[in-house]
Design brief:
The protein contains 3 helices and 2 strands, in the order αααββ. With 97 residues, it is an alpha+beta fold.
Length: 97
């Protein structure tokens, strides 16, 4: 024997905790986002913040440039009890998540 074994049920608890990380709270497609006003409001909040902070502006690309791709990333923020307290949407450049 190499050492003491783990308490009974520990492996099951670790598995359950791992599975909770793969939550279905965040949408995986834009079609899902369109069905829920909370996510649309989160996107509007992000766009308003980008405009207010003058983070970037939309511009027509020149024929010599290659525009960067953007994608939405959605996160549901939860409090200590596991209840969703905020819906967060942010725009990130593709490949930089």
């Amino acid at each position: 024997m190499l050492g003491p074994t783990s308490p009974p049920g520990l492996a099951q608890r670790e598995l359950e905790e791992h599975l909770l990380l793969a939550s279905d709270t965040e949408p995986s497609t834009f079609a899902e986002v369109q069905q829920h006003g909370c996510w649309r409001l989160a996107m509007l909040d992000e766009m308003t913040a980008i405009e207010a902070n003058e983070t970037w502006e939309l511009a027509d690309p020149s024929h010599h440039s290659r525009p960067i791709g953007l994608k939405w990333v959605y996160k549901a923020k939860k409090d200590a009890a596991g209840i969703i307290s905020k819906y967060k949407a942010r725009l990130v450049a593709k490949g930089y998540v």
